[in-house]
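User: quick one, fold this
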Amino acid sequence: TFRSGVGRKVVRALKRKDDGITHACVDFLCALMQPMHDNFDLRQEQLNKSSLLSNEGFLVQLLDVLKQHIAIGTGALVISALLDFITFALCPPYSETTAGAMFDMVLKLVANLGRHLFKLFQHPSLAIVKAAG
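Assistant:
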C-alpha cells in the first residue's frame, strides 16, 4: 500500500544518518500528523497518527535520534522537528486526535529520555528551550 511504502522510504532515509535528510523526514511526519492548512480532514489526521504512532520500534528509533543529538549537542533543526513531532502526539490541542493507548505509549517512551530531555533547557537555541518546556 501507499502508506507502507512511505513508511519504508522514511525508515530507509533515517538510516542514512544525514541531518538534512533526517530533518526533512521528521518534518514530513509532522505534516502528516498535524496539517498546517485550513482544509485538513480530521479523520485523515487520526488515521495518519494511528499509523505513525502504532509502531513502538519506529518511535524508539526516532527518540534515539533525538537522544543522540542531545547528547552530543548537534542537529538543532532535527531536535526542533522531533520536539514538534512529540508535541503533535502529546500536547493539547493536537493530542485530541491521538488514541489513548498510543498517547500512553509515547508518553512512556518520552519519559524514558530522562535527563536527556532536561538537558534541552540548557540548549543555546531559545526555540528549542521553549519547545522542550
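User: anything notable?
Assistant: The first helix runs from residue 2 to 14.
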